[in-house]
Write a structure and sequence with these properties.
The protein has 248 residues and is α+β, with helices and mostly antiparallel strands. It contains 9 helices and 9 strands.
Length: 248
């Protein structure tokens, strides 16, 4: 079943849709139809109750179409990005079995990776209600794509393997350490920018980033007492500002 919902931004649109259909966030798939703007509402499509697709059917999904979505699952998950955000603890956290999903994920990613590199190897590490997949090989540039765009597309297809009945399982994907290296580069940039902002006693605007990357900056600097951060701008121009704290 499907339901379209609108709101001031993507997150509010999702919440409006969940209220209308009576579903929980982890039980639906989200497709962003319009990201919204200053004078335009965001529009999302909530999908649930779909029958399980086989690995072969998933491999046939048009990756290019997924790449063109305005936001990825990681973007949506990180949309509430303020560093002082508080998350209410769950009363009873249900631990779910990840073994079946782990097997399907390995099969899907292995079939995809072999198309570009016969030597590619897929590994999976299961945690508490989460699975981290990694693809290792020598010629995986096509799977990574420009600025990691293909990784994001494949991540969306990977998430589509999850059945509603399998509960709240988060899945992460890295290819040849691309994300790990990128995340570390953002952490290094955040710390370097903070030192510079304090030194020159001026705000520093970073280049535009997606919500996931902005979240890394906020998290990296949240425990410092000499700077603060905030996101500003709309759409593709949204970025982080690092501000020095002037002590009295």
């Amino acid at each position: 079943m499907q339901l379209e919902a609108t709101g001031k931004n993507v997150e509010i649109a999702i919440q409006n849709g969940l209220l209308e259909c009576g579903m929980k966030r982890e039980d639906v798939q989200v497709k962003v139809l319009e990201s919204g703007g200053l004078f335009k509402k965001a529009k999302v499509l909530l999908i649930w109750g779909e029958e399980e697709n086989t690995v072969e059917e998933q491999a046939d999904i048009n990756i290019e179409q997924a790449e063109n979505n305005e936001e990825t699952i990681e973007d949506i998950a990180a949309e509430t990005e303020q560093k002082d955000e508080s998350i209410e603890p769950e009363k009873k956290k249900r631990i779910v079995d990840t073994s079946r999903l782990e097997k399907r994920g390995i099969e899907f990613l292995s079939g995809l990776a072999k198309l570009v590199d016969e030597t590619a190897e897929v590994k999976a590490t299961a945690g508490e209600n989460e699975i981290s997949f990694s693809i290792i090989g020598g010629k995986l540039g096509k799977l990574i794509g420009y600025h990691g765009e293909n990784i994001q597309a494949i991540q969306m297809l990977l998430s589509g393997l999850k059945l509603r009945s399998e509960g709240p399982i988060r899945m992460y994907l890295d290819i040849d350490g691309y994300k790990e290296n990128k995340n570390q580069a953002i952490i290094d940039l955040a710390n370097k920018t903070a030192e510079q902002a304090v030194k020159i006693e001026r705000n520093i605007h970073l280049d535009p980033m997606n919500a996931y990357d902005r979240r890394i900056v906020h998290t990296t600097l949240q425990n410092r007492d000499d700077v603060t951060t905030e996101s500003t701008g709309e759409g593709e121009k949204r970025h982080v500002v690092v501000k020095p704290i002037f002590k009295k």
